[in-house]
Amino acid sequence: MTQPTSAREAADRNAQAIMSGNLSQLMADITPEVLAQVMAMGAQAGGLSPAQMPNIEGYDLKDFGPQEDGGELFHVTFRSSAGTATLGATWKQLMGQWKIVAVNLVSAEPAPPAAG
After folding, report:
1. Model confidence pLDDT, tens digit, residues 44-95
2. Are 110 and 26 contacting, i.e. CB atoms less than 8 angstroms apart?
3. Is the pLDDT of residue 101 over 90?
4. How far apart, in whole angstroms, are the C-alpha atoms of residue 16 and residue 76?
5. Ranges of each domain in the chain
6. Does the structure show a pLDDT above 60 at 1?
7. Confidence check: pLDDT of 115 > 70
8. Own/partner long-range contacts of 88-92 (Cβ < 8 Å, ≥24 apart)
9. How far apart are CA 97 and CA 29, in angstroms?
10. Domain boundaries 7-107, CATH class
11. Which among 106, 108, 3, 112 is positioned nearest to 62, based on CA atoms?
């Protein structure tokens, strides 16, 4: 696959990889520091981090543009039957490739209980 030419292309590719469970692409998109942040995020999200969500049905990508630190910030909201989780991801070009250099949990909302 060709390298994305913009942070938005990279963020979209990464969100699709999360939806499809493409672990090799996920690992290629993050730095070791971000891997540690992602591991800590699971407990913080109460089971609603994208890594723990069953059958992600879709996502929305919001571009916040260039930041003071030189990165580009995106919020990605993943949707599944369990609820929604929004991640903030800062992307930067490192050695010619777009990488996530910081990630945080913006929100996690469980789905309302099914009416029965």
Report:
1. 656 556 666 678 899 999 999 999 988 999 999 999 888 898 999 999 999 9
2. no
3. yes
4. 11
5. 7-107
6. no
7. no
8. 89/11, 89/14, 91/7, 91/10, 91/11
9. 9
10. alpha beta
11. 106
54: burial class by Cβ within 10 Å (0-12, 13-18, 19+)?
A: exposed
Please state, in angstroms and rounded to a whole number, the distance separating the CA atoms of residues 41 and 1: 29
Angle at 72 between CA 80 and CA 64, to 5 degrees: 65
pLDDT of residue 3: 78
Q: Tell me how far apart the alpha carbons of residues 29 and 10 are, in angstroms, rounded to a whole number.
A: 8
SS3 78: strand
Mark 64-103 as b/e (b = at least 16 C-beta within 10 Å). eeeeeeebbbbbbbbbbebbbbbbbbbbbbeeeebbbbbb
Strand, coil or helix: what is 62? strand
Q: What is the pLDDT of residue 49?
A: 61
Evaluate whether 62 touches 72 at the Cβ level (below 8 Å): no
